[in-house]
Amino acid sequence: MGAIRIASTALLGAAALSLSMPTAATAADGSSNATNIPPFGFSVTPSVIVPGGQVTLNVTNCPANATVSSGVFDTVTIPPESSRNATVDSTAKRGAAYTVTFTCNNARGTAQLTIAGAATPTTSSTVRPTVQPSATSPLGVRGGLGGSVKDGLSPAEMTVGTTLIATSAVGFVYFLRRRWLDRRH
Questions:
Q1: Average pLDDT, whole number, for the chain?
Q2: Could you tell me the sign of the dihedral formed by the alpha carbons of 55, 50, 36, 22, in that order?
Q3: How far is CA 62 from CA 104, 150, 179, in A?
């Protein structure tokens, strides 16, 4: 009877340990970017615009020229750590949302550009903001990691985590073993 308890405890501990270890996720294209978050930053400003208005396209942390394309303006090439303006087609459908695709070194990111439904341009849609790229621009939230890890876990962090889990598993087995020995007396 005791062997069954110990074996089941060991199996439960091994299952808990294996489920708590980080796994390497792989996207359909074979990259490790399974969350579809590109390794570069990008933005479209403003995100709501009238037909014929200009948007500012900004790309950060891209070592090469980036290309930006959409069905509502011509394809734009942006040099590293820079921004460019694009003119929205005057025939863009009011109230429609268009996907803007940023491409840098075969990595892609998308943003939405909405065409304003008002017949006359508003003050906010004609303002041309100045975007200053910075080297410390956020790359977006890494949802699977809680947004706190940029480049993955270091070997030291993995060792500390594994040690903590192993220590708790050993403590749990020790607790069950003492409890089992106390019941025998």
A1: 74
A2: positive
A3: 6, 16, 59
Q: Dump pLDDT digits (tens) for 117-154.
A: 755 544 444 444 444 444 444 555 555 555 555 666 77
Entry pTM? 0.45
